[in-house]
């Protein structure tokens, strides 16, 4: 992972959290299943389970700051003790198994605010529209890697530039040092991501390029 990797902020940008494995995953949620959802929370949660040294952890979609998370079609409210702090290792493992589909939407919303058309366009810039339409619950590992790159660059840009708004503008504006591409377009490849990080490092520390 790059130096200065802010796992907490990156996980928040992707709207994910890490929860110590639940023993009754298929039990009814506090708010019940989403309308029309099948009652297969246990099966859904298995795909988001990652192995750690002391057992296993579930990658879940976070709620609105009230301790609520979504596991499969169910929403639950969990005690703070159930959450594990995000770390580079946990995020790497989550990317390997495939992030929740919602992670890409969270990142796009960070970049576009409430503009639904722009949110969709940003999502399709990371994962092609025809492919994304087939992703009901989970991204592939490659798509997850692209999503993490964009989240990482957004967090870096916010730190370097000082605000969400300036970070959004940087991420979506073509840059001469990226061959006229925007950082979100450059993030399609690892090398493009590294070049964008060099630009951000120069802005953050006053370095020459």
Automatic annotation (TrEMBL):
InterPro entries from the UniProt entry: Antitox_Xre, Xre/MbcA/ParS-like_toxin-bd
Which segments carry the region annotation Disordered?
A: 27-46
Describe the location of the Antitoxin Xre/MbcA/ParS-like toxin-binding domain by residue ranges. 157-206
What Pfam families does the entry give?
Answer: Xre_MbcA_ParS_C
NCBIfam families, sorted: TAS_TIGR02293
Q: What is this protein called?
A: DUF2384 domain-containing protein
- Organism of provenance: Roseomonas acroporae
């Amino acid at each position: 992972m790059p130096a200065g990797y802010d796992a907490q902020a990156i996980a928040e940008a992707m709207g994910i959290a890490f929860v110590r494995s639940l023993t009754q995953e298929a039990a009814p949620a506090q708010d019940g299943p989403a309308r029309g959802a099948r009652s297969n929370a246990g099966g859904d949660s298995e795909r988001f389970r990652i192995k750690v040294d002391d057992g296993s952890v579930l990658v879940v979609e976070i709620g609105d700051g009230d301790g609520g998370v979504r596991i499969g079609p169910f929403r639950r409210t969990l005690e703070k003790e159930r959450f594990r702090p995000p770390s580079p290792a946990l995020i790497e493992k989550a990317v390997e198994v495939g992030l929740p589909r919602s992670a890409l939407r969270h990142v796009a919303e960070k970049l576009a605010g409430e503009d639904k058309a722009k949110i969709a366009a940003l999502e399709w810039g990371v994962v092609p529209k025809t492919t994304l339409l087939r992703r009901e619950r989970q991204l592939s590992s490659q798509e997850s890697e692209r999503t993490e790159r964009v989240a990482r660059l957004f967090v870096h840009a916010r730190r370097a530039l000082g605000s969400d708004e300036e970070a959004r503008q940087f991420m979506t504006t073509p840059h001469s040092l990226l061959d006229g591409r925007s950082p979100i377009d450059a993030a399609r490849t690892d090398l493009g991501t590294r070049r964008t990080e060099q630009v951000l490092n120069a802005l953050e520390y006053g370095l020459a390029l």
